[in-house]
Structure formats: C-alpha cells, structure tokens
Amino acid sequence: MAKLIGGIGTSHIPAIGGAIARGDQQTPYWKPFFDAFPPVQQWLGEQKPDVLVIFYNDHGLNFFLDKMPTFAIGAAPQYVNTDEGWGIPALEPLRGEVDLSWHLINTLIDKEFDVVTCQEMLVDHACSLPLKLLYPAGNYPVTVVPVCINTVQFPLPKASRCYALGKAVGEAIQRWGSDKKVAVMASGGLSHQLDGERAGFINKQFDLQFLQSMESNPEWATQFSVHELVEKTGTQGVELLMWLAMRGALSTAGSGVRKVQSSYHIPISNTATAVLALEARP
Ligand code: DHB
Ligand code: FE
After folding, report:
1. pLDDT tens per residue, range 84-119
2. Strand partners, 143
3. What are the residue numbers of the active site?
4. What angle do CA 185, 235, 223 make, to 5 degrees?
C-alpha cells in the first residue's frame, strides 16, 4: 500500500511568480519569505515523495462563477498553467497521477463526498507556484493530484467538512494499491483580504494560533463557521480551509507529527504568509 509521509502548507500569491522570474529571492522584501523554503526542500530531497496531493483553490482560471464546484478532483495526465492576467510567466505543466486520482474519486464518492471529476483542468498560481517553491530547479520529480476547494463564491464548505474531506483523502491514500510515497499539500492563506473596506486586513494573533494548532490541536479551527473565519482572517484568509484539509489527511497517518519547518512573515503583497512542513511519525 502507498505511504503518506507528511504534509506541507504554503501561502500562494501571484507576486511570488514575479519575484522568481526576476530572481528577487534575496532582496530585503522577499528574503524572509523565500528563506523559509530550503529546510522544506531538503526534507523533500531526503524523503523523496513520488506524489503530491494538492489542496488548493482556483481563482477563476478553470472554474468561473457560472459553474463553481464545492470540491473538484483532477483526473488528468497533465495540468497546464496559463496566463491568468497577473503578468507572471506561465510555469511548466504538472504531471498527473491518474491512478491515484480515480482511486480517490471512487473512495470519496463511496464515502458520500460527491466530488466533481475533471479529466481536463487548468491550474492557476495556487497550484503551480507551490511546486516551483518546493522544487526551484524545475523538472519536478513528483506527480500530482489537484483537489480544488471553492473559496471564491458563497456558499463555501464548512471548516469541519474540509477537515473531514482531508481525512477521507488521507485514508484513501493509504489504501491505494501502490508502493509510492505520497505527501499532502495545502496552498492558501493565511489571513488576507484583497479588496473592500478591510483590504489589507491581517490577523497575526489568529494566524499564529492557527499555525500552532496545525501541530498540536489540528481540529481547533473547525469550531468556527465560515463567516467567523472570514471575520477573523479576511475574505481570502478563508483559504486556510486548504490547510485544514491537508491536516485532516495527515491526521490519518502514523502516530502524530514532527515539525520540520514553520515560518510566518507579514506581509507579502496583502497577505500574511506561512510555510509549514510536518512529517508523519512512523
Ligand atoms: C494575493 C493573495 C492571494 O491569495 C491571491 O490568490 C492573489 C493575490 C495577494 O496578496 O496579492
Ligand atoms: Fe488566493
């Protein structure tokens, strides 16, 4: 059976793609963000996962307001990134792990998570940039299964539901008939609001408590309704639902977690950024 080895969380922001394209990683503005990644890259180099299951939210590239699935899973051999209008270069396509995609889809639907299946799926900055942050040299040594969670158009799925989805994904990964190593990843958050009266809103106290909960009390944030999360973290801060799904998946593996890396930096653009890597203890 496949092995679930750990979980990673990272913020995503289109401006990160611009910084990479310009080689700005060591400038004073960007250094605190990019310096969080080498320990995670080293851990990945040692652990060598074969597959990443990526919880992310699309921002209008693949799904628009006319058709907005709550949960959607990619089942494609390749996921292409294209121009989203942010002025960042498109990144290399991601290779799909089709067999795991269908295993997850079949298992989730059997467990009454009625996901949308996508045999073609464009992936936006939320899915493409994290790969570039984890494997800066490109030529990614992993295949992926993208799991898209709606945070764009209300109603959004509840925090507890996202955690439960993650748990079902984690259990399914470990029942996948393969000897591959799998890691789960969350892309999004932490607190940020891009527009409206509270544009620029950041809640450091909540973010730090949330990050700590990922280590020691992973279901902590499931006590909050989506509206409470928006109030506490901003309209886009609700992307932390991805982190709950990732952590739900990891909760099914091993005997607890070991922290490999945890970093918090504010702000990049309008966003409080965080990077976290947790290893599943055997
Ligand atoms: C920003 C943050 C996001 O989560 C996103 O998807 C786009 C932009 C920002 O802070 O600029
Ligand atoms: Fe976003």
Report:
1. 999 999 999 999 999 999 999 999 999 999 999 999
2. 51
3. 125, 192
4. 65
Confidence band, pLDDT 50/70/90 cuts, at residue 27: very high
Ligand nearest to the CA of 14: 1
Distance from CA of residue 137 to its chain's centroid?
A: 20
From 12, 16, 238, mutation site for ligand 1 pocket: most ligand atoms within 8 A of C-beta: 12
- 3-state SS, one letter per residue, for the chain: CCEEEEEEEECCCHHHHHHHHHCCCCCCCCHHHHCCCHHHHHHHHHHCCCEEEEEECCCCCCCCCCCCCCEEEECCCEEECCCCCCCCCCCCCEEECHHHHHHHHHHHHHCCCCCEEECCCECCHHHHHHHHHHCCCCCCCCEEEEEEECCCCCCCCCHHHHHHHHHHHHHHHHCCCCCCEEEEEEECCCCECCCCCCCCCCCHHHHHHHHHHHHHCCCHHHHCCHHHHHHHHCCCHHHHHHHHHHHHHHCCCCCCEEEEEEEEEEEECCEEEEEEEEEECC
